[in-house]
Design brief:
Helix content: 25-40%
Number of helices: 9
Structural class: alpha/beta
CATH superfamily: Vaccinia Virus protein VP39
Strand content: 15-25%
Largest sheet: 7 strands, mixed
CATH topology: Rossmann fold
Distance between the termini: 37 Å
Shape: globular
Strand order of the largest sheet: 3-2-1-4-5-9-8
CATH architecture: 3-Layer(aba) Sandwich
Number of domains: 1
Number of strands: 9
Order of helices and strands: HHHEHEHEEHHEHEEHEE
Length: about 220
């Protein structure tokens, strides 16, 4: 099934490899996203990353925050994350689903879900946002990101490189268009646009800011009251 892709086919070392082979413009995008998040974090903060994978971003967060928690549905990715985090001590890793964490209400100063996790998780996006709000302190910050339309050529190029390396199935070029990447083995990656983010938080009592970063990312910053 679609939501099992990052557990069964694209976890741990294979996921790591996707980032290792990223072309320069994609690596710039990844760094810009991380730097944008780090600007929002202070040394005393308790920070949660949804979908932490093998720790690519979580390790950076731990160097700036008081304590970080990373969650992921892939046990194999979490095992590799322990290796990534081996020189750090201010962290915990949990094998759980971001849409139903079981974590305490109003626990975290910052909740982070970047690199299009809101689409990649293949869960109810509004429920994901509601769960993130539930576990964030009033006045805290939730950061979701997706891609800008202008980054589409570079994004497609990167995913084609991953497919050529055998990390994804062959890209279905007939189905891949309008911000949606589809592979012939069941992988799908959609784009969440600014108007989509606004619709997802409509009717929820939060402050919301949409920001473009690096010409490649759209960030939706949510602040619970």
């Amino acid at each position: 099934m679609e939501h099992d892709y990052y557990q069964e086919k694209l976890a741990a070392d294979k996921l790591n490899r996707c980032y290792d082979i990223a072309p320069p413009r994609a690596k710039q995008y990844l760094e810009a996203e991380t730097e944008h998040v780090l600007e929002k974090i202070h040394a005393r903060y308790l920070v949660l990353e949804l979908g932490c994978g093998y720790g690519r971003v979580l390790a950076r967060l731990a160097q700036h925050a008081g304590f970080v928690v990373g969650i992921d549905t892939s046990y194999m990715s979490l095992l590799l994350c322990y290796e990534t985090m081996k020189d750090l001590s201010n962290y915990a890793l949990l094998n759980m689903n971001a849409i139903c964490t079981g974590l305490r209400d109003r626990s975290f100063d910052t909740v982070v879900c970047i690199q299009n996790g809101i689409s990649a998780f293949h869960v109810d996006q509004r429920e994901l946002i509601r769960e993130s709000i539930r576990i964030t302190k009033p006045g805290g910050t939730i950061l979701f990101s997706s891609y800008t339309d202008k980054f589409w050529p570079e994004r497609l190029k990167w995913f084609q490189i991953q497919a050529d390396a055998g990390l994804l199935g062959e890209i279905d070029l007939k189905a891949t268009r309008d911000g949606v990447i589809v592979s012939k083995d069941g992988f799908t990656a959609r784009t969440v646009h600014p108007h989509d983010f606004k619709a997802l938080v409509s009717g929820i009592d939060v402050e919301t800011t949409i920001t473009e970063v690096d010409g490649s990312s759209i960030f939706c910053e949510i602040k619970p009251h």
